Amino acid sequence: MFSLSLKKNLYSLICCMCLLLTLSLKAQEQLEIHHINVENGDATMILIHNTAVDTFPASVLIDGGMKDSYAFLNNYFKHCFKDTMPVAHFKYAILSHHHQDHYTGFKSLGDSAFIQVDTIIDVGGYKFSSAYAAIAPPDTIAAALKRGGDKPTIKRVYMKALKTAYDKSLLKSRSKVITSFPRDIGKSITIGTVNGIPVTLTCVAAAAYTYTRNGDSLFCGISRENNPNDYSLGFVLRYGEFRYFTGGDLGGENGPKFTDQETTLVGGLDTLLHELSYSFDATATRDSVTGHICAFKVSHHGSDHSTNPAFLKIRPAVAIVSAGNQKNWALPNPAFQQRLDTTWKPLSSRADGTRPFGVSDRGLYITNLYNFKRYGTERDSCLKYAVQLFAGRTDTEFHYGNDYDPAGVATGAMTGSSEDPTCKDSYILIVEPNNITTQSIFYLYMTNFWKGVIMSPIGNYKCHRNAR
Q1: Both ends of the chain: CA-CA distance in Å?
Q2: pLDDT tens digit string along 201-233?
Q3: Which residues contact 424 (CB under 8 A, 6 or more apart)?
Q4: Of 108, 181, 326, 434, which has the fewest CB atoms closer than 10 Å, so is most exposed?
């Protein structure tokens, strides 16, 4: 919504508008990452946007949220793609793992008025029609057969949607590149190009295998409960010097419900992103950090079981959390928030006096924040704790997407927590294409099509440049 610091917010507004004007004058295409607020679950859209003619040469949808996500997605797609038929056409649709808050939003995949997909990518672990591209367990481990999670539901919802879409020619194929694990860990697909520079997705985690420092894959094991989170697909998006990570509900600790894949993955990212990434401005400490990620979607909605201290060594500038109103989950967990506060050190950390005009070192964007009462006590005060830790800080931009009062009016004071479906802001990350091969500059915008708010600038980041 709006920062508590009016001056800081004004700086960001001016800088974003000026930089966006520069972008529009020099380049016709841009990379956008839309974090769609679907209340519960995940739904992320990657777009290559030709701004000159307002078309989208390539698009990717990662996850579809829960069963109630249709209204959110349909509204978002219609406004974004201008009522084309079908409403949305994706080059790739990716299901990170087989949990209902990620796949049930795909139940309308076979609706000819809603969505069309060229290629589907998922973790497999189930059998399908012989007419469809082979989707078989990628290994002989018996536990792999269970990676479908709630089998009756995934068969009734996700697999049915795939078959319906395939029969109607609304789904063409399954990926032939990222389809078998561990064989395909480390492989990449090209989404398209932005002004001639390729945009790629590299698979770095899948089916409990994780990319390692040796450039190969390691089986990290399966939790005792054989949680579908263990099988999450993880990808690094690369566009010049910009790098973004998304990993479904990937775990960062060993326990009955999780396995620690993040610690191994950090070494893999060191190998994959071997270029030295120096802090952006010369007044900051020039750490030669490898494996640096500019921004990431926080795994598992900000639970205490993911985003461990080792993983935060990737030193991102921006973290985006997709959380909702599920009381049993009570996310983002206060312990996760505390870990962010104490161990999150962006690559370009600066003293207040040396920070460029209107630029933040780090940004935390959460789709929804609530205070959850358990057993008659306010044990998990997620909203109160987040505001206490991150609001009003000079080095951090902090926003959440349901800061509306009961009347549906934005509070601007970080006191609201509306469950109204129209009071749901989404966050769009746009990468500056100019000089993208030598630097990483990007902006965050808030949008709420229900409220008529389109592309309101809220953050400006100069992450690093690959030069001494």
Answers
A1: 37
A2: 999 999 899 999 999 999 998 888 888 899 999
A3: 37, 39, 72, 367, 368, 401, 402, 448, 450
A4: 434
DSSP state string for 223-281: -TT--GGGG--EEEEEETTEEEEE-TT---S-SSS----HHHHHHHHHHHT-S-BEESS
Q: What is the DSSP letter of 2?
A: -
Cα–Cα dist 107/141, whole Å: 29
CB atoms within 10 A of CB 416: 21
DSSP code of residue 290:
S
Tokens 């993040």 correspond to 262
Residues facing 246 on adjacent strands: 235, 297
Phi, psi (deg, nearest 5) at residue 186: 95, -10
| Pairing mode, strands 234-239 and 439-448 | unpaired
Parallel, antiparallel or unpaired: strands 396-400 and 362-366:
parallel
Helix (H, G, I), strand (E, B) or coil at 453: strand
DSSP one-letter code for 356: P
84 pLDDT tier (thresholds 50, 70, 90): confident
* Contact by Cβ (8 Å): 427, 404: no
Poorest-pLDDT segment among 11-25, 232-246, 297-311: 11-25
pLDDT of residue 12: 53
CA angle 66, 70, 72 (to 5 degrees): 95
Chain centre distance of CA 274? 23
Selection from 124, 102, 106 nearest residue 115 by Cα: 106
Q: Model confidence over 241-292: pLDDT tens digits? A: 999 999 999 999 998 888 999 999 999 998 998 776 677 765 555 555 668 8
pLDDT at 23: 47
Which secondary structure element, helix H or strand E, spans residue 58, and what is its range? strand 55-62
CA dist 186 and 188 (Å) reads: 7
- Number of neighbouring beta carbons within 10 Å of residue 44: 20
